[in-house]
Design brief:
- Belongs to the low molecular weight phosphotyrosine protein phosphatase family.
- Residues 245-256 have a biased composition (Basic residues).
- Residues 192-256 are annotated as: Disordered.
- The protein is globular, with a radius of gyration of 17 Å.
- The protein has one domain (5-215, 235-251): Response regulator (Rossmann fold), CATH 3.40.50.
- The protein has helices at residues 17-29, 50-58, 73-77, 87-96, 107-115, 131-145, 167-188, 243-251, and strands spanning 5-11, 33-39, 81-84, 104-106, 118-119, 122-123.
- It is an alpha/beta fold.
- Helix 1 runs parallel beside helix 7 (167-188), helix 5 (107-115) runs parallel beside helix 7 and helix 7 packs antiparallel against helix 8 (243-251).
Length: 256
Amino acid sequence: MSAPFRILTVCTGNICRSPAAEYLLRRALGPGVTVASAGTAALVDRPVDPPMADRLRADGLSTDGFHARYLVPALIEGADLVLAMTREHRAEVVTAVPRALGRTFTLTEYAALLDQWSEGGRPRPFYTIRVPDRLAEFTVAAARRRGTVRFADPGDYDVPDPFRAAEVVYDEAFRRISAAVDTVAAGLHAAGSAPREAGSPGSAGGRGASAATRPGAPVVPAPSAEAPWVEPGRPAPGPQESRARGLRRLFGRHRP
């Protein structure tokens, strides 16, 4: 069995945004992908901030057993993809480990790049089948396409920090994270693969929809805390949600 594709999510305290992205990505992407998180100024050993934990619980995810930790170079080196919550976090990751530039993006940037990955005006089909392989395939393409995404509002690159803020800010942060995760999952869970060179097997396929579990689903057990990259059990997928709906949520103007 091949090694898992490893994603690291990064925010400041590692108790609000990056854990939310960690839990949502882990559920949405499934087997073969491991997700961990860390903070540039982590509140070490703290659990997920209660207001964010409540939102994750309402979405069917338990954060029991979570402990915040510092972002250190070894975590960056060990990740195949780093998804930062803001441009500032992205810069801190690349400053710590410059060679991580090609695999470090903000979460919303990565989602938009995947959504706009097109060929002849249509979503570009993948050459690979498994989600971990598609992540590896697209991350290489995303590094080449980094400058092609331009948000009308530069703030859309970032997920706002809700810590000790009003409930509406927690709502907006959770909305942006979950919408970006839905968009990523929708693109990666597409059926089919891209046409190969002449004489090679393969067929074209379109983008599918996310299989993320929606609110009301059973609570998922907390991930194992004994090792950063241990993949926990995955719940059965719930109802699918279209990528278009995820994009409307991601780029909607519901400002706090």
